[in-house]
Amino acid sequence: MNTSLLKKNINNVILSKSNSELSFFTTKRSFLDKKFGSLNDVFLEINRVSEEEFGIQSDELYLPLEKNEKNNLISFDNGILLINSLFKRLKKNCLMFFRLEKPIYIKNKKSTDIIFTLLTPSNIRTSNKLQILAKLTRILQNPNIRKEIRGIEKPEDVLALLLLTSS
Fold first, then answer.
1. Most exposed of 60, 62, 99, 108 (fewest Cβ within 10 Å)?
2. Continuous segment of H or E residues that includes residue 98
């Protein structure tokens, strides 16, 4: 696994040396500390960051929570939520991160204060998407990862932690 810095402070995180499609892009401005009151607030921020950082058109962005499929929200017992979604015009996988000042509660009544969002092109091969989700799930289920993320000060250190934890 490696990262390479591209123009405009975009990091390409490669999860597999043998399959370059198992990767995602992220930016410093997509790793944020936020204060949200609800999951709908999270979706609004995902919309904003998606458009500004990754160029996703407003007509493709998240609908209110009621219209999102339940399998797009993966809630872990350690207070971390992984949101995943497909977009027609997106060309590469992208990852966002929000660390919340106060926890929010999602429909299953689980308290969540760390949220990762994986955005993928709708034409991604299902096997590649499942492999990326599996790798992220293994990392985010680690019992110590939440505590470590809470203690990190800079966005790039969250990315470094993800990379170290997955190797």
1. 108
2. strand 94-105
Please state the pTM of the whole predicted model: 0.85
What CATH number does residue 71 fall under? 3.40.930.10
Task: Name the strand (E) or helix (H) holding 32.
Answer: strand 31-34
Q: What is the pLDDT of residues 119-151, one digit of tens each?
A: 988 888 889 999 999 989 988 998 888 889 988
Phi, psi of 152 (to 5 degrees): -80, 140
Q: Which two tokens stand for residue 130?
A: 């499942």
Enclosing domain of residue 82: 2-166
**Mean pLDDT along residues 93-118:** 89
- The structural domain count of the chain equals 1
> Strands 10-14, 23-27: parallel, antiparallel or unpaired by DSSP?
antiparallel
CA distance 72 to 107: 13
153-167 burial, b if ≥16 CB within 10 A, otherwise e? eebeebbebbbeeee
C-alpha 8: how far from chain center: 19
